[in-house]
Specification:
CATH class of the largest domain: Mainly Alpha
Radius of gyration: 33 Å
Distance between the termini: 22 Å
CATH topology of the largest domain: Multidrug efflux transporter AcrB transmembrane fold
Shape: elongated
Amino acid sequence: MLNRYPLWKYLLILLVLLIGLVYSLPNLYPEEPAVQISSAQAGASLDQRTLERIQGALAENDIEVEDTEQQENSVLLRLTKTSDQLPARDVISDLLDDDYIVALNLAQSTPSWLESLAASPMTLGLDLRGGVHFLLEVDMDQALTQRLEVNASAIRETLRSERIRYRDTEVEGRTLSFTFSNEQDRDKARRLIQRDFPGFDYANVDAGRGARLAMTITDQKVDEIQDYAINQNLTTLRNRVNELGVAEPLVQRQGPNRIVVELPGVQDTAAAKRVVGATANLEFRLEARPDTPDNETESFAFRNNETRSATLMRDVILTGDSVSSASRSFDENGRPQVNINLDGTGGTLMNRATRTNIGRNMAVLFIEHKTRDRTVLEDGKKVVKRDPYTERGIISLATIQSALGNSFRITGLDSPAEAGELALLLRSGSLAAPIYFVQERTIGPSLGQDNIDRGILSVQIGLLLVVLFMLARYKLFGVIANLALAANLMLLIAAMSMLGATLTLPGIAGIVLTLGMAVDANVLIFERIREEFRNGMSAQQAIHAGYERAFTSIVDANLTTLLVALILFSIGTGPVKGFAVTLSLGILTSMFTALLVSRAMVNLSFGGKPLKKLWI
């Protein structure tokens, strides 16, 4: 019989529509403005007394807190009004010291029964949801200093292996200098070093009672080191952001020594700032023997007990750069630890250092570069000056029981959160040079909400015009087309929510375009039905022929548009990808609703009935 579907097909279409309805519903529950407070150190928490002080200060400033959620390592304050976010952040920041990070956030309000079905709202881009914008600066001077210190350690090992005696090592600016007791030792060392370290200008310097060799990095080598530092930091930051699970992040170079990081709609902006800005690294060193000369040793305190210290060798066995993977776990006593795997070179260096030092202590030194901001007056204006400093502390000092290889573990950590964060930093790669926050800008949800409101208005206007046109042109069939159009919009939102696709402002433009293309298929079908009916076909035959003969044209037109959308997605970036995603999904959902959903409604309305007239 013409224009009738079997029961299973109706049920299948109904099932798809029900799934679409469920997974599009979370988008009706908007996220709520919130302020998140986290400790600057992983594993620490906010005590109840401090929290009460914060709540009292907010109440004094007429900022209403709707709810307070104490999470594992942070506190989330839900606010009633979006406009209160910035004032609330300022009030809390003035109340707390630098040990806490205060950040704007958006808290989900999806009902628990939808969350149990893994239903969540669409991920919104930075232009819609807001987020954080970091401008980071790479310390190029420190990059040169670190490279010189690494070279100095390697040169000292070479000199010791060749039994060439030296007195002292000094790093100053771009110059590395060694002091020898006489000119013969200096000349012998120079011939040996020049062979393995060609990127320096060498000069003999008179040092009074001794002889000094000065090694200055060439301009070409400086450019190579700085370019490597910025590229390595870019790679490391991208890995860290990927570990955070941020959708559509932006990490790109700006100028010769700066990096821009944009994180749209992160759930824990405080943790993101802590992880992105962390410049921590590890060094593995042997504990110094009592008879080791003072110029070859350094003393450091323990991170978790500053009253305890140890004297270590200046030479570094290896750094966190050699770590290929790291994961958090617990030892046999339930204490947190980090399991580390080294790359091939790191494993060789570790084995070489430990197999000849069994019974000797080896320390894991935690190094973190930080800054202190201070305000000074320059020409009558307040200017913020940044003073960089470095914190070094021992997190583990253990006796070497046997020769170590590529795998071992780090113990002595304070909390599982600290172990997890250290594993993340090591896993994502260390920074080639310290980075500092030059600018931190929170793109507030008020701006994103304005974009959302305008985008929704454009969708509503476009939808209204299409609905009115279809009703005026095709009457009862126009009603069916409009219902299919509403189903198409619902399925598109559900698909984006289920796939975790990010909706941006250009993506809303793609939705508007999809609405127009969705009814285009119905226009082709309905015009074909009209033509067949005028040519003398019965109403049932005209309906059947309209859908069957328009099918090829609809598929061909949509496939060519889909190919263009896929090309835009593959070669485009940022906004272009957002547009391509919504356009691609919209094409697929519009073909489903135009060819199956509208056909099912036409079949239910007219199928199997004697028709002398078509309301089209």
